[in-house]
Amino acid sequence: MIIKQAFFNHSAIKVAQDLLGCFLIRKIGRKIIKTKIVETEAYDGPRDLASHASRGRTNRNAVMFGPAGYIYVYFTYGLHFMLNIVTGKPGYPAAVLIRAVEPFNGPARLTKGLAIKKNFNRLPIFTKKHGLWLEPKAEPIKPNNIIRAKRIGVDYAGAYKNKLWRFYLKDSKFISKK
DNA sequence: ACGATGATGAAC
DNA sequence: TTCATCATCGTA
Questions:
Q1: Backbone phi, then psi, for A75, in 5-degree steps?
Q2: Protein residues bordering strand C (Cβ below 7 A)
Q3: Is the Cβ–Cβ distance between A90 and A66 less than 8 Å?
Q4: What's the CA A151/C1' B7 distance, rounded, in angstroms?
Q5: What does the pLDDT look like over A109-124, one tens digit per residue?
């Protein structure tokens, strides 16, 4: 069972919540690493000042402007990779940042732990072909187990810094930041 | 061609 | 709070 492209064809805010509890699977050679998503953030639209897309389309962020279900990986702070999934309609830039999975807390640690580098940028997540895909959650998440909060590290984003577009599972021990 | 700047994490 | 450390982008 794999999560298909249509799953991502909604707003980033919805998809970010839908992804909580889903499984992120990485296959390297014969080895399979199965992780559970416990924390996400939504970056929604061209006006979201926290989003890379707010400064318009560039070569780096181009994948955010394309169809849903594709992977956006970028490099930051000179040493970290961040994993995002594009959502919504082509032409409308939006993505969900995977911030933490069990057993890796923090967006940089999960990419390191799963050996995700820039070579995944622009690849589809809705196929097993590239060794990285998603599987549905075992059971529905109760709404009161989802915490809504402000996004991390976006203090420069004006009115958008206060948007409650970060979501995490209340009972997880792998959240990147309280 | 150059300089500013991070969707971070770890150490101090 | 500082630092490690560099691709990307705006400006020129």
A1: -105, 135
A2: A 55-56, 58-61, 74-75, 77-79, 118
A3: yes
A4: 8
A5: 999 999 999 999 999 9
CA distance A158 to A142: 32
Q: In angstroms, rounded to a whole number, what is the distance separating the alpha carbons of residues A38 and A6?
A: 21
Q: Assess contact for A131 and A27: CB atoms under 8 A.
A: yes
Alpha carbon distance A161, A159 (integer Å): 6
Q: Structure pTM? A: 0.95
What would the two tokens of residue A161 be? 């810094």
Residue A81 to residue A37: CA distance in whole angstroms: 17
Q: Are A152 and A164 in contact (CB under 8 A)?
A: no
* Amino acid of residue A60: R
Encode pLDDT of A50-107 as tens digits.
Answer: 999 999 999 999 999 999 999 999 999 999 999 999 999 999 999 999 999 999 999 9
Residue A75: per-residue pLDDT = 96
Which of A21, A27, A136, A125 lies closest to A68, judged by CA? A125
Helices (H) and strands (E) in chain A, counts: 2, 9
